[in-house]
Amino acid sequence: MPEPEPPKDEGAIAPTGTGGTMDLATSDGAGLEGLDQGDGKGPDEKARSLWSDAWRDLRRNPVFIISGLIILFLVFIAIWPQAIASGNPLSCNLSKAQQGSQPGHPFGFTAQGCDVYTRTVYGARASVTVGVCATLGVAIVGTVLGGLAGFFGGFSDSILSRVTDIFFGIPVVLGGLVLLSVVTSSSVWPVVGFMVLLGWPQISRIARGSVITIKQNDFVQAARALGASNSRMMLRHVLPNAVAPVIVVATIALGTYIALEATLSYLGVGLKPPSVSWGIDISDASKFIRNAPHMLLWPAGALAITVLAFIMLGDAVRDALDPKLR
Amino acid sequence: MAEPSKTEGNPAGPAEVVTPNVTEVAEIDVATESAAVAAIEAPAERGEPILQVRNLVKHFPLTQGILFKRQVGAVKAVDGVSFDLYQGETLGIVGESGCGKSTVARLLMTLEKATAGEVFYKGQDITRLSGRALKAVRRNIQMVFQDPYTSLNPRMTVGDIIGEPFDIHPEVAPKGDRRGKVQDLLDVVGLNPEYINRYPHQFSGGQRQRIGIARGLALNPEVIICDEPVSALDVSVQAQVINLMEKLQDEFNLSYIFIAHDLSIVRHISDRVGVMYLGKMAEIGTDTQIYDHPTHPYTQALLSAVPVPDPEARTGRERIILSGDVPSPANPPSGCRFRTRCWKAEDKCAKEVPLLAIPERFVSSTTPAAHESACHFAEEKNVVHAV
């Protein structure tokens, strides 16, 4: 049985055989190069965390402020369109069909003679609801399922991956025609539900891949070695690092969902009149784009600004959650 | 290597090799979980074996199939390794890439489930523990990781990273003085306590490794497993980190398992050294025994590969060049694992697995060559080397 020797008490070493003459009797505090010049801030006694740092960062980011204001405004008119549009989106006058801008009707009239301004304002509710709810639903369902599958792996992961493949194989428009044609409700929820049903596999795949990559990092193993529970590892270590690609894809998908709502409405299976939505107006107006482009440009412009605002917001949030970009 | 978690019930292959060189395990039978926790939390005596590894085996199954996976083989990453770690000592484990060093570390941390074999910590088999007892073990055995760039969460501040052990084990530090404790730990590892709100990317490699060491020290553990803690650092920083680790060992009475492939660093820090080859321990002994009196041909070849900085000593020395590559751990050679590359190999080597034991010819002698070596033809060979 070998007797353990007492720990050695040597001062310094030459760490490799090739380093012969190097004098490495460096003091233990010698690794502090370059950090003292830092950012000039004194010792900050307040504890900081990723989220408080991210919020501090976002408040100073003009992109976040502008996109946030646009989204707040959209939410405001979605809840209370009467505040800025006094007319009725459904009162139309065929004699004014396709006419351009007039006093009191700044955006002109639609093919049915309805006021484009009023309809654009009222359309925000359906479009923003569909876009935001479908995106949230897809992001939550996709992240939870994909994240759990990626984190735990094994048999459940195999099952989920195959289910994802099946859903990927369903053509969206055909699926919409089949599933939504049996729905008689004119509300937005069947459309939102359909989008979540067909949209989650996209996010789920991204979340799964991202979680698998992050899970293999040593810091997750270090947390496990400390005795961290699965939920702590997932919420504190894996999720914050894996969520960036999900945010990017989700914000881009938001525009796609608003456009998909338009497509489905055009095919007669999405929102049904008398609902008012940008999608319905855009598909109606697209037939008259050469004679009366204003009918298309206003709702399409509103759609573009909405999508851009959400993409910019997602971008700003993703950057704020990455300390390396500060 | 797929699905390492699904290995239970996969019986070990050649686990019949019982190494006679290790001490008797005083296994403590405990009826309840609290008794297990109490046994784990009892302080260890200096010079007592604190960690006893017996015939540890880890096979990673190789699977085929998309939905229903079926096992077609196994990578025998660790295949019957036994050793003791004594309180207060440093045990170095060396070996080339892929020999199973890191898997041993992960098994000791119970980050992987052992296929077979036991790891006794103060008489408790930690491979079978769960719940509160396992958590108590984790408080006492901590790890320093190889790559300081992936071992720190990039989205947590240094304060959060070093403070996380206190969140998981709240009994160690009351909530109020955790921040002070974190700053003390930063000070202990030679970092400015004011860096507490910085993120890992704002630090250099050596500083990040110090943060990793501070996290490992937070719970005041008894054993620290260092998985190549300096191999990702440049040479001058390696020395700082090694010196820091030696200082901390004296200060906190730590026991280290130090895994590395740099022979000179291992000799510097270790009291005893084990040499691994293809999932098995080839030779184990004190640093003088291994470095100056190696008896296993693999150890001799490893040592002869260390560069010699002195041109005059270099001219006369014989370099042992091994032919061929390391065989696949999925299909290791029969008998002695090293025989396919060994210049001494004979028929016996293919038939009999050499035991890790003191070679017969040295049993009754007191030479430094009388240490455990898993070779049928163990003998000393004068290898000129620089460590």
Automatic annotation (TrEMBL), chain A:
Residues 1-47 are annotated as: Disordered. It comes from the Bacteria. Residues 124-314 form the ABC transmembrane type-1 domain. Its main location: membrane. Keywords: Cell membrane, Membrane, Transmembrane, Transmembrane helix, Transport. InterPro entries: BP-dependent_transpt_permease, MetI-like, MetI-like_sf, OppC_N. It is a multi-pass membrane protein. This is ABC transporter permease. It comes from Streptomyces niveus.
